[in-house]
Design goal:
- The protein starts with 13 loop residues before the first strand and ends in a 7-residue tail after the last helix.
- The protein has helices spanning about 20, 25-35, 155-160, 165-170, 190-195, 205, 210, 310-320, 330-340, 375-385; strands at about 15, 40-45, 55-60, 60-70, 75-80, 95, 100, 105-110, 115, 140, 145-150, 180-190, 220-225, 230-235, 265-270, 270-275, 280-290, 295-305, 350, 365.
- By secondary structure, the protein is an alpha+beta fold.
- The strands form five sheets. Strands 12-18-17-16-15-14-13-20 form an eight-stranded antiparallel sheet, sandwiched between helices. The protein has a four-stranded antiparallel sheet with strand order 5-4-3-6, with no helix packed on it. A three-stranded antiparallel sheet has the order 2-11-10, with no helix packed on it.
- Belongs to the bacterial ring-hydroxylating dioxygenase alpha subunit family.
- Keywords: 2Fe-2S, Iron, Iron-sulfur, Metal-binding, Oxidoreductase.
- GO terms for molecular function: 2 iron, 2 sulfur cluster binding; iron ion binding; oxidoreductase activity.
Length: about 400
């Protein structure tokens, strides 16, 4: 197989615009990254609260079936019959204790075992149903967050997460005991790297709601964890003050217990983003559809111990603040698309905010620096096998 090539700039703060736009890179990215030795969050187990609950999705083209069996155990399968690979389940989610392939009526239980198939006496000699369970990718759970990898070479999940694991745990209410509130789903006209190149520099400059609400940023830190450049934000919560354009100020009230770290963000390579801001717990499962389209499922959660008033409060904030049309993030969709358009020009994108030495990579950044994205870009370059230009 011919390898794609792209010469990377000498300086760490420069990224070739062609990385956002070249369609020939996409197939190699899928092979090396999405189907390679990486962990990908695909769901939280609270999306399947009851025995028999299931969810389906596709990750970089690979169909997956996530199921909770009668004993409450969560499993991940390839969504393909073990007979002739017919797609087994077409519903996005539901509740079943058995899955029947419509093609030849092979029947599987929620544990993935083949429990029935027509005319087995006419099969190959020695046929045994026990030899044909649904196939499974590697998967692990982290405080209920379900990760999969399609490679046997991927390191253990704890090693993959590194220091980001602690921030991610705190983001998921400290213990991962979540309750699903609902979803907002969207497709962006953007390459997956344009979607994931979001930074801390733009927020007070782009998003009009910060100005309209007189919302000032609180003190905080931004840091990267592991060689992949996972980026984490931990910041004090600064509640909007002064005259408000909102008729109901409760929409942006904070009912949590610790405003000193009231906002957290974790971005895991390659596409996962999670946010805890005010009382919103938001996990974003992003999936590359093609070289110019990225699909994102924004999932919102409460904590299992929340009372009815707190659940309603989280639901209202989740519906209005951080989603694809959220009042403090609605401009992002336009920017993702405009990055994709603008990158069809020659040259490099040059990062500035927070860059002290273009010849070095750092791991600690100010909250509003854009340089926190650079370790992730360096890992992408390395994973793709692109050589850096000589000095």
């Amino acid at each position: 197989m011919a390898e794609t090539t792209l010469t990377w700039p000498k300086n760490y703060n420069e990224v070739p615009k062609a990385a956002f736009t070249r369609a020939d890179l996409y197939a190699d990215e899928i092979r090396r990254i999405f189907h390679g030795p990486e962990w990908h969050p695909i769901a939280h187990e609270s999306e399947l609260p009851n025995p028999g609950d299931f969810k389906t999705m596709r990750l970089a083209g690979i169909p997956l079936l996530i199921s909770r069996d009668e004993a409450g155990v969560v499993r991940v399968f390839y969504n393909a019959c073990s007979h002739r690979s017919n797609q087994l389940e077409t519903a996005v989610m539901g509740n079943k204790t058995e899955f029947e392939c419509p093609y030849h009526r092979w029947l599987f239980n929620a544990k993935g075992n083949l429990v029935g198939c027509p005319n087995p006496r006419e099969f190959l000699p020695g046929f045994d149903k026990a030899d044909y369970p649904l196939e499974q990718p590697r998967f692990e759970l982290f405080y209920g967050l379900i990760f999969v990898t399609f490679s046997a070479e991927t390191e253990p999940l704890d090693e993959f997460l590194g220091e980001a694991g602690e921030t991610l745990r705190e983001l998921m209410a400290g213990d991962g005991r979540l309750k699903l509130l609902g979803y907002q789903k969207v497709r962006y006209d953007s390459n997956w790297k344009g979607y994931n190149d979001n930074d801390g520099y733009h927020a007070p400059l782009l998003h009009a709601a910060f100005k309209m609400l007189n919302w000032q940023g609180g003190k905080g830190r931004q840091y990267t964890a592991t060689k992949r450049g996972h980026v984490c934000f931990e910041s004090a919560l600064s509640v909007a003050s002064g005259p408000s354009v909102l008729k109901d100020k409760d929409l942006i009230s904070f009912k949590g217990q610790d405003p000193s770290v009231g906002s957290r963000i974790v971005q895991l390579f390659p596409t996962f983003v999670s946010t805890k801001h005010l009382d919103v717990i938001n996990l974003r499962f992003a999936n590359p559809v093609d070289a110019e389209t990225t699909e994102v499922h924004y999932a919102y959660f409460a904590h299992q111990d929340d009372d009815a008033d707190m659940v309603r409060h989280r639901l209202r904030q989740s519906s209005n603040l951080l989603g694809p049309c959220g009042l403090i993030s609605m401009e992002d969709a336009s920017i993702f698309h405009r990055i994709h358009i603008g990158s069809h020009t020659p040259g490099n994108a040059i990062f500035q905010k927070g860059v002290r030495d273009p010849g070095k990579l750092e791991s600690e950044f100010l909250q509003n620096d854009e340089s926190g994205n650079l370790p992730r870009w360096e890992y992408y370059r390395s994973a793709m096998g692109f050589e850096r230009a000589e000095a």
